[in-house]
Write a structure and sequence with these properties.
The chain is an alpha/beta fold. It has six helices and 13 strands. It has helices spanning 15-23, 34-39, 51-60, 64-72, 82-85, 191-205; strands spanning 3-7, 27-31, 42-45, 77-80, 88-91, 102-108, 119-124, 126-127, 143-148, 150-154, 160-166, 169-177, 180-183.
Length: 207
């Protein structure tokens, strides 16, 4: 059976992500051991919380270089929420450097009259990479669940795989570049659309 490792670095509830992956037919393993990550068929990096504590915990567990090596090897990789943001160079939220896998910066939503920050709840995706395999069998402009105050700003717009509009601000909601995919929303909280996305990732991981 396909084995997907879910990275454990004390930054969020991992079990709901595992349930979605298992529903799609994968075996999951929650781990922080580089050897187990290296032996898995694919990697999922979830995360909720703040940028600096996340990077410090990855570094405290000596996971920074192993994650970079695994991504460089071509193994399918999915980042979720904070797991998207820490792929970038840095964040306006803190001082720590990110993993630097995707060039760019993490920005905070600008204040607007009557705009709630964080963006919390359901919103529509606009798929900029419509042929991305992560979006297979999704409706046009599907609804997914967000909970975030910060968003990613890639240096290269072509890595953006989907956008979302909050108030008047249209920002990147997902990226895809080679074997690296990552989303700002929570697929594990996004009903049938989220389950389809996780199922698509399992299919990608299975080759």
């Amino acid at each position: 059976m396909l084995k997907i490792a879910v990275v454990d670095y004390d930054m969020g509830n991992l079990h709901s992500v595992c349930k979605g992956l298992e529903y799609a037919g994968a075996e999951t393993l929650i781990t922080h051991l580089p050897s187990e990550l290296a032996n898995a068929d694919a990697i999922v990096l979830p995360g909720v919380g703040a940028f600096d504590p996340a990077m410090k915990k990855l570094r405290d567990r000596d996971l920074e270089q192993p994650l970079k090596d695994i991504i460089a090897s071509g193994k399918p990789f999915l980042g979720i929420c904070l797991g998207l943001q820490i792929l970038f160079d840095r964040s306006d939220e803190g001082e720590e450097s990110g993993l630097g896998i995707i060039p760019g910066i993490v920005r905070k939503f600008q204040s607007e009259p009557n705009l709630t920050i964080p963006q919390m709840g359901w919103n529509q995706l606009y798929l900029s990479q419509s042929n991305c395999p992560l979006w297979s069998q999704l409706d046009t402009n599907p609804w997914v669940y967000f909970d975030h105050s910060y968003y990613v700003e890639p240096s290269r717009s072509l890595v953006g795989a989907a956008n979302v509009t909050h108030g008047t601000q249209t920002v990147t909601a997902a990226i895809a570049q080679d074997n690296v995919m990552a989303v700002q929303f929570h697929p594990e909280k996004s009903s049938t659309t989220g389950l389809q996305i996780l199922s698509n990732f399992v299919k990608i991981a299975g080759g």
